[in-house]
Design goal:
Bound molecules: S-adenosylmethionine
Largest sheet: 7 strands, mixed
Distance between the termini: 79 Å
Order of helices and strands: HHEHHEEHHHEHEHEEHEHHEE
Strand content: 15-25%
């Protein structure tokens, strides 16, 4: 049978006209169509099958449910049949009731989505959300970063440097461990990051020209420096006027084993230590905040401190 004949045959039944008129507004599942039309499942399914066969409908599966919608793809030549069907449906006595029921079902769908968020509001940010992660947020935030020249002091293998290099103009990663620098440089090369340069050096006197970078980052590096105040003064020296110095470090803690376990020189810093050193170096608009607390003992807390030159 030709496509036109199939479509005409599909329209030659009031129930199928009702179904088409209902799907005009939104896609619907068999259950929803059942609820709206008060018809049995097998009857609805038969009509849906016929309509789909005639090319007027499309379907998609979502878990155990199948949703049906009108085939609105361009060039399919079904629009005129659909319009005809809707005109016909309006002449059927069930039409007004169908429309009222449809409105109710669609409103309930919306309410169900809202119900979940109304229930979790207040604890949503602390609970699991599918697809939501700090990693993903980090990638998003990176996209809004301007093309800066960055110095990552005490960079390690360059976890942060590599991330930054994907958006920044240039990243200079400084570390005093030969192996870290060699490994980081090799990895950057392998990843094609030509704007990431590793330099061997001391973060207390980094091998970077004065006033040559827009941003200095010390991430979990300052507590390794013999003289943290000197390291911050050096950060100030290499940053351009108007540039930023940002420090991520551990808040002062009592976990003595950190010396041996992680090679830490200092057991973190107080907010006032960091404030004093930043101020003494000439950093303005200083902001300091505790930004993370680990769930597991010894509950390390991370402090973010920094300001503008
Ligand atoms: C805990 S890691 C932090 C790595 C990286 N910044 C991060 O956040 O993942 C500390 C790094 O600082 C380096 N480091 C320690 N003392 C340093 C110093 N005086 N000058 C330069 N790098 C230093 C170590 O070699 C190590 O790679």
């Amino acid at each position: 049978m030709s496509k036109t004949l199939k479509s005409l045959r599909a329209l030659a039944d009031p129930t199928r006209l009702r179904i088409i008129a209902l799907l005009e507004r939104d896609e619907l599942s068999v259950n929803e169509l059942q609820e709206i039309t008060r018809m049995g499942q097998s009857r609805i399914s038969t009509h849906l099958g016929l309509l789909q066969e005639s090319g007027l409908l499309q379907s998609r599966r979502e878990g155990k449910r199948t949703f049906y919608r009108l085939d609105s793809r361009e060039g399919r030549g079904v629009r005129e049949f659909i319009e005809m069907a809707i005109r016909g449906a309006k002449e059927i006595p069930d039409y007004p009731n169908d429309q009222v029921n449809l409105k109710r079902i669609l409103a309930r769908r919306q309410e169900q989505a809202q119900l979940y968020f109304n229930q979790v509001a207040g604890r949503f940010d602390r609970s699991y959300g599918p697809g939501r992660s700090w990693q993903a947020f980090g990638q998003l935030l990176l996209r809004i970063l301007p093309p800066l020249i960055v110095a990552d002091l005490g960079s390690g293998e360059g976890l942060l440097s590599e991330l930054l290099a994907r958006r920044c103009k240039k990243v200079i990663a400084v570390d005093n461990s030969e192996k870290m620098v060699a490994y980081g440089a090799k990895k950057a090369k392998k990843n094609g990051l030509k704007n990431l340069e590793f330099r061997l050096g001391d973060l207390q006197n980094p091998p970077i020209d004065p006033q040559s970078v827009d941003l200095v980052i010390l991430s979990q590096a300052l507590h390794h420096a013999e003289d943290p105040a000197r390291a911050i003064a050096s950060a100030h020296r290499i940053v351009t006027p108007g540039g930023q110095v940002l420090i991520l470090d551990l808040l002062k803690h009592k976990f003595e084993q950190a010396h041996k376990l992680y090679g830490d020189r200092w057991l973190g810093f107080t907010e006032s230590d960091l404030h004093r050193w930043l101020e003494a170096a000439g950093i303005r608009k200083i902001e300091i905040a505790i930004v993370a607390r680990e769930e597991q003992a010894p509950h390390f807390e991370t402090v973010l401190a920094g300001g503008i030159k």
